[in-house]
């Protein structure tokens, strides 16, 4: 895989850049390939998106599909106007294997089981992220620490996590507040952006000829209407990557389960590629839906780390060092709330249409220190003054886990049961 990525990058220097975000427990690089018309630097005003595959080492289809996707994008740039538009207006970051150590010990043809699922220290990487709903006491692993650091440095707008063992697009929340007696096939745990997440999941599943039919992988396993599910409704889990992306950084991530067999024979890969090719491309293009723009001061200078949220959708996001922001929204009328240290807060009305994203530039005016009109949002506020929901604040470190009120023996029991169930379901 390393050789392939290096060769591809050297052959397509104008469209690709290869970098490592860290190393696995056993010292393997966690390679990321950027595919874009601007591979080496962020394009101001244009979104960054990502795919992360193979975080469970024995779920191998996503890893292979990412290598195919890289090749497909660079080969189609000059001949396919849609791909050219996508690469001219988006930076696509692809991490083909988040768990290369696990992949090394997994075996082709093993459809079920846990051999290779975990990292080299025996940790499930998709239970190793900070969690809003419950305390996650698991020791941070090098692979998850690398992804957390990466996500904190680049403001990703949209993300897909590629898995295997089922055929469904699963959207947040993966976890649920009522922890003591979780039941499987339980009630959904819905985000404030549930309409957007459902749309993103359906964008993937509806372009996939098999997933869209919602057929169960085998007798006794769930069938999913339209090929999508709320994560917690399928089965709740603590420490998942998609909830972390959304709550901590406002990045909308969907988990894409791409194959009933976790590590199918290599001869089946062409079929998987054909089934997923259109979905993989169209999903990323959804980053160009909703609202985007800049937050500036009166002199036209960018305001970095301004805190934003869409009124009624109380998971916030922030501006980049260039003052940029993005938010995926479906057509409708919204109110954007903007706060920044030393400035008067603002509310701005906006309309989102189907055809193209809404460009919205916001100018902030300085607050006088003695007029009490501005109070910096605290961790408890999430974003902005006044009563607020209890979602996790971006002002907290992504490397620490939020303490939770529950725990003890019940969380130990449910954690053990979670592991048992996740090995069955994927």
TrEMBL record:
GO terms for cellular component: extracellular space. Residues 1-287 form the Peptidase M14 domain. InterPro entries: CarboxyPept-like_regulatory (IPR008969), CARBOXYPEPT_ZN_1 (IPR057246), CARBOXYPEPT_ZN_2 (IPR057247), Peptidase_M14 (IPR000834), Peptidase_M14_domain (IPR050753). This is Carboxypeptidase M isoform X5. Transmembrane segments: none annotated. Keywords: Carboxypeptidase, Glycoprotein, Hydrolase, Metal-binding, Protease, Zinc. Residues 371-407 are annotated as: Disordered. It comes from Frankliniella occidentalis. One of its GO terms (molecular function) is metallocarboxypeptidase activity. The gene is LOC113217736. Its cofactor is Zn(2+).
């Amino acid at each position: 895989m390393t050789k392939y990525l290096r060769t591809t990058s050297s052959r397509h220097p104008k469209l690709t850049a290869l970098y490592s975000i860290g190393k696995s427990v056993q010292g393997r690089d966690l390679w990321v390939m950027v595919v874009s018309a601007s591979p080496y630097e962020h394009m101001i005003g244009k979104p960054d998106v990502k795919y992360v595959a193979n975080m469970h080492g024995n779920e191998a289809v996503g890893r292979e599909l990412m290598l195919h996707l890289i090749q497909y994008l660079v080969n189609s740039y000059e001949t396919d106007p849609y791909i050219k538009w996508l690469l001219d207006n988006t930076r696509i970051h692809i991490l083909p294997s988040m768990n290369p150590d696990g992949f090394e010990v997994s075996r082709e043809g093993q459809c079920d089981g846990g051999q290779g699922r975990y990292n080299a220290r025996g940790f499930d990487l998709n239970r190793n992220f900070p969690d809003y709903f419950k305390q996650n006491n698991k020791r941070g692993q090098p692979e998850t620490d690398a992804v957390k650091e990466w996500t904190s440095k680049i403001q990703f707008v949209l993300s897909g996590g590629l898995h295997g063992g089922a055929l469904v697009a699963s959207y947040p929340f993966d976890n649920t507040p009522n922890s003591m007696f979780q039941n499987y096939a339980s009630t959904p745990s819905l985000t404030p952006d549930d309409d957007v997440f459902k749309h993103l999941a359906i964008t993937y599943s509806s372009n996939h000829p098999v997933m869209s039919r919602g057929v169960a992988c085998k007798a006794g396993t769930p069938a999913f209407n339209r090929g999508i599910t709320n994560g917690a409704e399928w089965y709740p889990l603590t420490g998942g990557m998609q909830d972390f992306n959304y709550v901590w950084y406002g990045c909308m991530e969907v988990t894409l389960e791409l194959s009933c067999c976790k590590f199918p024979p290599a001869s089946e890969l062409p079929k998987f590629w054909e089934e997923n090719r259109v979905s993989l491309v169209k999903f990323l293009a959804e980053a160009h839906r909703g609202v985007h723009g800049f937050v500036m001061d009166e002199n036209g200078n960018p305001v970095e780390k301004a805190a934003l949220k869409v009124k009624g959708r109380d998971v916030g996001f922030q501006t980049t060092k260039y003052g940029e922001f993005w938010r995926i929204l479906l057509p409708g009328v919204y109110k954007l709330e903007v706060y920044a240290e030393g400035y008067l807060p603002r509310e701005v009305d906006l309309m989102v249409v189907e055809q193209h994203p809404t460009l919205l530039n916001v100018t902030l005016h300085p607050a006088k220190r003695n007029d009490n009109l501005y109070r910096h949002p605290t961790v408890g506020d999430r974003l902005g003054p006044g009563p607020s929901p209890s979602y996790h604040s971006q002002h907290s470190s992504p490397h620490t886990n939020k303490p939770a009120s529950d725990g003890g023996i019940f969380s130990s029991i449910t954690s053990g049961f979670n592991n048992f169930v996740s090995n069955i379901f994927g």
